[in-house]
Specification:
- The chain has about 400 residues and is of the alpha+beta class.
- It contains eight helices and 17 strands.
- The strands form four sheets. The chain has a six-stranded mixed beta sheet with strand order 9-17-16-15-12-13, with helices on both faces. Strands 7-2-4-5-14 form a five-stranded mixed beta sheet. Strands 1-8-6-3 form a four-stranded antiparallel beta sheet, with no helix packed on it.
- The two termini are about 45 Å apart.
- About 30% of the residues are buried.
């Protein structure tokens, strides 16, 4: 029986998505779980899998179309069966409407722009260059100035083939360097990703009653174990400090299920799985990748999975399940030599852990000054779900897993 594939909801506040590219064409076979299309959201370009096996009988929307969540985009069925008409004509590509101003009421629609607009030339537009995340990555790696490229994607958007064409023989200008000393003021438009981050964080900070608990951890045993482990494994299997923290947090959440929860109206939804979201830095902002059931994975499995997801995020191409469904988040700025900070809760989650650097410093133990490794972490908690005593107990229990790291290998 034919099955209609709809535009999936790929984010907590996603209302629509742009169908960037069809991976499967009409008439081609497809298996359940195979990538069917690439969808662009405010956060990233996401690979969408088919939810059925069979033959792609009809592509209901064209590449470049902006489609509300839940609307049909394709039909998958057998080669022989008759397919009922879902739509009289495919949705046409169109530029996205301008975002609503921050002061506008939530849910108010922006004024739509006409469907057909002239493609901008590289020198005609004074605004930001419109390019896909993958095109931006390729351009950055090859020092291609996007302002010199003529986009052939929807609405003049620069896509991968435009960069590849330029690299194949067209002359391009070198990429712009750092902001020159003495330069005048410049206005930089806010990216869609940064707008999405700002919208969610402003909502979280103004509607969620945050409180914070900070703890300092002894990291001597963990740093020694990590160094010993990394000496005997190949480069691509080495563990980061963050790998240990993710596993330790996931195990600790088994004892504190109330912090592995989401607020749903007047109820608290306690999640059975400990899916740890980890913030990854991308061009123009942050994106959270999700390590599912992190407490049940070995450190090696967890590390390999996190590396692969982070790489796909930075390429601008991830799968929906890799960036959605976290139940507890970790933001680690330790690699930037940050001593301590507090993070904003990622709604609808109840808590987020902010991690600073593991530092070697002078410490006092038993009246003697010695060298030791210390790390500070701060948990931000929704006061509607939990309280300070529970958060403090969580941080103490987390210390047991971090300061006796062999527990993470059992």
């Amino acid at each position: 029986m034919a099955e209609t594939i709809s535009m999936p909801k790929l984010g907590f506040d996603m209302a629509e998505g742009t169908l960037v590219r069809w991976i499967k064409k009409a008439g081609e076979p497809v298996q359940k779980g195979e990538v069917l299309a690439e969808i662009e959201t405010d956060k990233a370009t996401v690979e969408v899998e088919s939810t059925a096996s069979g033959v792609v009988r009809r592509l209901i929307v064209e590449e470049g179309a902006v489609v509300p969540i839940g609307k049909p985009i394709a039909i998958v069925g057998t080669a022989e069966e008759k397919i009922d008409e879902i739509a009289s004509a495919p949705a046409q590509p169109q530029p996205k409407a301008a975002p609503v101003a921050s002061g506008a009421p939530k849910g108010e629609a922006a004024v739509p722009m006409p469907t057909k607009v002239p493609l901008p030339s590289p020198t005609s537009a004074a605004g930001p260059v419109s390019a896909s995340p993958l095109a931006r990555r390729i351009a950055r790696e090859n020092q291609v100035n996007l302002a010199t490229i003529h986009g052939t994607g929807p609405g003049g958007r620069i896509v991968r083939r435009d960069i590849e064409t330029a690299l194949a023989g067209q002359a391009v200008a070198p990429a712009a360097g750092v902001f020159p000393p003495g330069a005048g003021d410049q206005t930089t438009p806010i990216s869609r990703l940064r707008q999405a981050i700002g919208r969610r964080m402003a909502e979280s900070k103004t509607t969620v009653p945050h409180f914070y608990v900070t703890h300092e951890y002894k990291m001597d045993a963990l740093m020694a174990l990590r160094a010993q482990y990394n000496r005997i494994v190949p480069e691509d299997q080495k563990l980061s400090v963050n790998d240990f923290i993710v596993k330790a947090a996931a195990l600790t959440l088994r004892e504190f299920p109330n912090l592995n929860a989401s607020l749903e109206g007047a109820s608290v939804l306690v999640h059975g799985a400990r899916n740890i979201g980890v913030a990854v830095s991308v061009e123009g902002g942050l994106l959270t990748v999700v390590c599912r059931e992190a407490d049940r994975k070995t450190l090696g499995q967890l590390s390999s999975e996190m590396k692969a997801m982070a790489a796909r995020v930075r390429e601008g191409k991830v799968r929906s399940e890799e960036i959605e469904g976290s139940t507890f988040s970790i933001s680690n700025l330790g690699m930037y030599d940050v001593e301590n900070f507090a993070a904003i809760i990622n709604p609808p989650e109840a808590a987020i852990l902010a991690v600073g650097s593991a530092r070697e410093m002078a410490v006092v133990e038993n009246g003697l000054v010695k060298s030791g490794w210390r790390m500070k972490a701060t948990i931000s908690v929704d006061h509607r779900v939990s309280d300070g005593a529970e958060a403090a107990k969580f941080m103490q229990a987390l210390a047991l897993n971090l300061e006796e790291p062999l527990r993470l290998l059992i």
